[in-house]
# Entry
Amino acid sequence: MPNNTALTQHYGLTGQTALVTGGGSGLGKAIATSLAQSGAKVVIAGRREGVLQAAGREIGKGASYRILDLANVATLAATADQLHEEFGAFDILVNNAGNTVKKPFAESTLADFDGVFDVHVRGALELSRSVMARMSEAGKTGSVLFISSMTAYIGQPNVHGYTISKTAINGVIRALSAEFAQDGIRVNGVAPGWIDTDVFRTATKGDPERKAKIMGRIPMGKLGTPEDIGWTCAFLCAPSAKYITGQVILVDGGGATGF
# Structure
């Protein structure tokens, strides 16, 4: 029989407060749900209040929501200050919020690129700067996660802004993990492969050839679920992962490395 006390001790997040960006839908909601079910007090953040309200009810466990726009980089320090005044220093930050522009490179503009890079990289960095500074000041042994992508490991056409941004995120993880390890703050990433979400279903609807190509690329022969990403994040934030930092875990059924 499993020792429930030991499981809670090593894998539980009771007493910790987590901030999850883009937590109102898709992978962000799944991550927030897994953290809440592990015992964390969860705050989900995003731009759409109605979506956040509905997600908070679904997540349960006392989940809260707050409005935050990562694209508006100049306001993030002030927004983070407000969050810290209300919730104190966070123990966990999950930089999940993202967007993309699907357009051939030759037809795209620098504004298209900036619109994606600002959310994935600049916005995530600015928010992390404030949250990690508070973690350090409070003497917390925190966990910061960045959601990368298997797209940082393989090439996909027409989404260069997303691919470049996710590749940059892997560098962010290496840089920040080295700098904050001595403070007891771990920095890791999770790189999802093809996951069965509304976004995936919309992208492949009416395009059986594309879907078949994707499925043929996955050695495990099936899509991942949002919960696969959520529980991987929960593990990386838990005491059981206390000696893991600077890593990006691919959760992709072998898609990035298989043949």
Summary: The chain has one domain: 4-251. The longest strand covers residues 186-192. DSSP finds nine helices and seven strands in the chain.
